[in-house]
Amino acid sequence: MKRIYALFFVLLLLTAGTLAQQESGANSSTSKSIGTSATVKKSVSKKKTVTAAKKRKMKDQEAEKEALPPLLSERLKKFAQSVPPHGGLGDAGELAHQEFMHRAYPDTQIPIERILGEKAAHANIVARNFSDQRNAQWESYGPSLALYPFTPLRNYTLYVPNAYPAASRTPSMALSPVCTRENCTLWIGPAGGGVWRTRDPFDNPPKWKYLSSVFKINAIGSLQLDPNDPSGETIYAGTGEANACGSGCEAGVGLYKSTDGGDHWVGPLGASAFNARAIGTIAIKPGDPNTIYAGTTPGLRGQSSVCCNGTVDFIPGAPKWGLYKSTDGGQSWTFIHDGSADASLCTGDTNEALNETPCSPFGVRRVVLDPTNPDIIYAGSYARGVWRSSNAGSTWVRIKASLDATDPAMRPEIAVTTLANGKTRMYVAEGSSGPTTAAPNDFSQLFRSDDTTTAIPTFIALTSNNPANQGYGSYNYCEIQCWYDNFVETPPGHPDMVYLGGSYAYSETGNISNGRGVVLSTDAGVSFTDMTMDATSAIQPNGTHPDQHYIRVNPNNPLQYFESSDGGMMRSSGAVTDISANCAPRGLTGASLTRCEQLLSRVPTLLISINQGLTTLQFQALSVNPFDSNDVQGGTQDNGTWETTITHSQWNQTIFGDGGLNGFDFANPQFRMHTYAGPEPDVNFTAGQLSDWNFIGDSFFLSGEPSEFYFPIIMDPAVHRTMFAGMAHVFRTKTQGVGARSLEAFRDNCNEFVGIDPNGTCGDWVPLGNPSANGQLIGSDYGTDRAGIDVAAVARTAQNTSTLWAATAAGRVFISKNADAEPETAVVFTRLDSLAPNSPGRFISGIFIDPHDSNRAWISYSGFSASTPDTPGHVFEVTYDPVNSTATWKDLSFDLADIPITGVVRDGVTQDLFISSDFGVYRLIDGERSWRLAAPGMPNIEVAGLTLVENARKLYAASHGQGAWRLLLPPAAANQVVANGVVSPVK
Fold first, then answer.
1. Are 550 and 173 in contact (CB under 8 A)?
2. Theoretical Cys-Cys bridge with 359: which of 346, 367, 395, 857, CB 3.0 to 4.6 Å?
3. Please, is 52 exposed, middle or buried when counting C-beta atoms within 10 Å of its C-beta (0-12, 13-18, 19+)?
4. What is the pTM of this model?
5. pLDDT tens digits, residue range 655-701?
């Protein structure tokens, strides 16, 4: 799940904050804000009339629950009524645009040369030797068992009602053509976790093996077996995730090929066609293994703890997105199609990305070959419908128009099969961002043609929005995120069977249906039954994750399938049963009761998670319990917040939804804090028990200030119950958000599951300093340069109770020496970046304060030095002199070259610096001027942030696709004592 209403509200806040600043005159004309690039303005202008009606309708709809606890769901609905009229969820990728612009800032584009240079610089670092003094290795810190524990708070009205071993978003898989219990292989491609294989997918649990340690990047978008290999062991892996999402859909480097099931690989192939793009679909011609088709979309890059990801924006010099063909086994590639009859019109320029040309603005998402004639090719492209080539890609005709060519996110998924009469049947499942006010794009829906090789095929619309009609089973099947959750599949030899997958219909889960995340038809798409939950219990059955991505059907049993989602992998039993008796107790009558009974008349007898053994969670940030350095907490993309249990191999989910930054209290071992996406923090006073999460974010909603998707929030390391967070101001609470209430009264009102507060008073955060728009750290009180955007980082030190550092996404850096002052308006911030001529004006991804000297910190910068050639550098030691009011920026980048950095920490024992990047973790050894890999053992994976536990000699890395990692650091010397994060000489 993308937590649509969380995203929805973040965008509302961004809009509200922008309008507030304009109304107050806060540099609205002079600020160089990320949100005001020419490209963005043009895009917004073009889309305004198209999306206005959609947004108005969305605001009038009941808010999607998206698996959020009841209190937060109600709050999002309430606050959505009070935001400006142009708020609302934008088109797919708008959120990703935020982080793309962070990476590009102060430019508005990222030329391909910078992306290639980043990868080359990483390769140079990899080639350097490790220091003999640092011989530890990275170890995976799990979880290999990521468990949604059983709880009565999750039931059939929500999602995943029973205990569930989880994994990360998995957009692709491949299943061997022979699949019996004795002989079957399943390959999967998690979004950021590489390629994994099991030779025993029917085991409980299967034994998984990670295969892609040699890949230059582990973001996987597609897997495809070569049908010409009778052994079933030749497989292609397309790197880069092609979903139009805003959180982790990383760009790739090309194709990899294995002829032994993934034990060995060659590649990447096709770098000239696929670099910085995402390969979402591959087809190989039967009878000719050298002929390969691959469809691409724009890819994303730039994961850090305080935000999501992104590059759906224009990359000058990058290959054109669309459909490519190779006739020499992948050695060379030719661009052949992108949603128009004339491929020469498709150039991949800004106008095309803005949907102003005949070509697709986002590329080809699916390519399939006709099952009776492999020279007939079908391609589904965003906003351009379905196309056919009858001559192996030389010429193209459109056989089904897009539901809405003005919507760049309109995604058609296609599946083909052969009928008994020899003709080709096609199913098309199509949708975008949800209902509009006018047909034909008033909901996502299913179509069928029974002869797609004729000149002009006829497509039958099978979907109805009327529950009295049996076509309701496919109604709005992927809700408002078909650009992300969308599949259709028909098992070979069973042309009347079709599986459809999208996202939960939360408004009807536990009512007229079980969510309709996965549905099955056996009458050629006329009616469907709901396969989302099984028959094991009427109240807490086993269920799939809400967001579906891919499905493979057992060739020996069309009722058994392997299905992937944001929660990893699920296997069905292959048997079905009737649970329609569960409908009447739900209080349904009339057509709703009839439809429920039909939908539940055939469901799986058993759904089994097969994720145990997969270490693929996409962590955003990790925190460590100050009372136990082995107890780690982490927030993940779409799988909530997790904490280690007895061993690091098993982590338990403590709260669902998206998970951002999190923390512990240094004085209370029972306290926990976490955030969802957006400014939505919770606090917990019983060691993370699910029932005790309490919301404290109303102050942020009421402020109307902009914030990051995963916004910066920290626990104070020296002052019990104090917390800081960044929006446009830095905010503070001295009560952990409880305020003047007793803890009992606070829980009664603000508990996520039973809270009843109707007044929006959960949380007592206050802005520090001048509370007006001018006094925001992005505002005019601190100058006219580097203005706008939001606060990207906040940091405190245990050395004293008063020093706080903060930074903005535009490169402003501040220090406060009285952050604990009362009243909050007395807090003073001093801007430091303007005091140093070499401080870069780019996105700041991390601040680490010296525990010995609170006036010194190390700062990491994302973006590219090429964007600020007069102020290059990615890692700086920053020292503030409060006596003389000066600040110095010492560049420690040395031979790092132009690699954007996502986080920084410094080991006070060895004085080594550690930084994270799109490809792993680097180390600068004290006294050296050359960066190296921090240690061996970690593959090329995105690392969003680092957490240092100095006194325990441990460094943790939050990877965005392979869980948590730990590096044991050298012990302190005989003359050193490490206590409370401070290194001191022995006295």
1. yes
2. 346
3. middle
4. 0.89
5. 998 899 999 999 999 999 999 988 999 999 999 999 999 999 999 99
